[in-house]
Amino acid sequence: MKQPAEYVKTFFEFFAFGVCERLGDLLKIQSSRIRLFFIYTSFITLGSPLIFYMIMAFIINLRKMIKGNRGSVWDM
Questions:
Q1: What CA–CA distance (Å, rounded) separates 56 from 21?
Q2: Helix (H), strand (E), coil (C) string for the chain
Q3: Is 55 domain-assigned?
Q4: What total of structural domains would you count in the chain?
Q5: Above 80 in pLDDT, residue 45?
Q6: What range defines the domain where residue 15 resides?
Q7: Is 75 a residue whose pLDDT tops 80?
Q8: Is 54 within 8 Å of 42 (Cβ atoms)?
Q9: Which residue has the higher pLDDT, 11 or 48?
Q10: How far apart are alpha carbons 76 and 70 in whole angstroms?
Q11: Interval 59-68: pLDDT, tens
Q12: Is-contact 55 13, C-beta < 8 A?
C-alpha cells in the first residue's frame, strides 16, 4: 500500500510538465535538485519562480504539439 506522500509525489511528477526533468537533462544536473531550487526560491521570493516554471511548461507543451502534428512527406 502506498503512503500518502508517494501519492502526492506521483501526482506532481505526472502533472509537472517535465520542466525540471528537461532542465536537468540540459544542464546535466539531477532533476531533484532543480525541484528543490524551485521550491526554496518560491518560498523565499513569494512565488515568482513559479511564473518562470509555467512559462517553461507552456513552451515545452507547445513544442510537443508542433512536433506531434508535423507529418512526414510520405503521409498522404
A1: 12
A2: CCCHHHHHHHHHHHHCCCHHHHHHHHHCCCHHHHHHHHHHHHHHCCCHHHHHHHHHHHHHHHHHHHHHHCCCCCCC
A3: yes
A4: 1
A5: yes
A6: 4-69
A7: no
A8: no
A9: 48
A10: 13
A11: 888 887 777 7
A12: no
The chain-wide mean pLDDT, for the chain, equals: 78
User: Tell me, what amino acid is at 54?
Assistant: M
Rounded CA-CA distance 1/39 in Å is: 28
Give the model's pLDDT for residue 70: 64
How far is Cα 53 from Cα 38, in angstroms, rounded to an integer?
Answer: 8
Are the C-beta atoms of residues 57 and 21 closer than 8 Å to each other? Answer: no
pLDDT category at 16 given cuts 50, 70, 90 is low
Grid look-up 510520405 returns: 74
Query: Where are the extended beta strands (E) located within the chain?
Result: none
- Evaluate whether residue 74 is within a structural domain: no
Q: How far apart are CA 2 and CA 36, in angstroms?
A: 23
